[in-house]
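I am writing to request your help with a piece of structural work I have in hand. The matter concerns a single protein, recorded as an amino acid sequence and a row of backbone structure tokens. Could you please explain, in whatever detail you think fit, how the structure tokens follow from the sequence? Thank you for your consideration; the sequence and its tokens are set out here:
>
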Amino acid sequence: MKAIILAAGIGKRLRGATGEPKCLLKISGLTLLERYLSALEKAGILDVVIVVGYRQEMIVDFVGKLNFPGGIKFIENPDFQKGSILSLNRAVGELEGDVLLMDGDVYFETEILARLVNEERADLVAVDTTSKSTGEEMMVGINAGRILDIKRELAGNFDTSGEAVGFYRLGAKASTMLREILTEHVEAGEHNLGYEDILPFLFQSLHFRPLTIDGLRWVEIDFEEDIARAESIGDIGL
């Protein structure tokens, strides 16, 4: 299994174009990226791709000082100020086989990742059904155990809805299909989309299931108050 971490963005809503990349934010004594790599190592995933852009040299230098036992490949997205679809597109060649696709700005309990990896079937989205939408959250709509849609302001009649953590596990067929969908949209010039905007096309073609992580602790870091909220959770271990 391979992990693709998207960590190219500026994080405008957090602190503008100054300071360190979000993945290097230190919470409870460790950077987000250190937690990712530790969790991946514990899960036995040693093939890691990190898409970088904003202040990429800081990320590369930081990782170079760590003792990660696997292989880490950096892919540059020079268009990091546009949509995250371009970050994923830079890694399009890595979308093959069993893949973990991960946003690089989440403070999370490692149990979330462990559950994703240990499931027998792939095509999973980590979902917290206790989250409520305020318009900022990336929400998924679920009917009969199948994810059908994902967007910030979700509308429609669904059995269940919940917030996507930003972690997706794709099987080989899903990886190939996402590669095709991604290429189609980028070649059509849709460069300001978030990569999540194309996921409904994938969900409509394949049966993606929610991996419910209710009760486990996590925070997506978008605003200053998110840092405070993550700090208030305390050390969630490695």
Summary: DSSP finds eight helices and 13 strands in the chain. The longest helix spans residues 172-187. The longest strand covers residues 160-170. The CA atoms of residues 92 and 179 lie 6 Å apart.
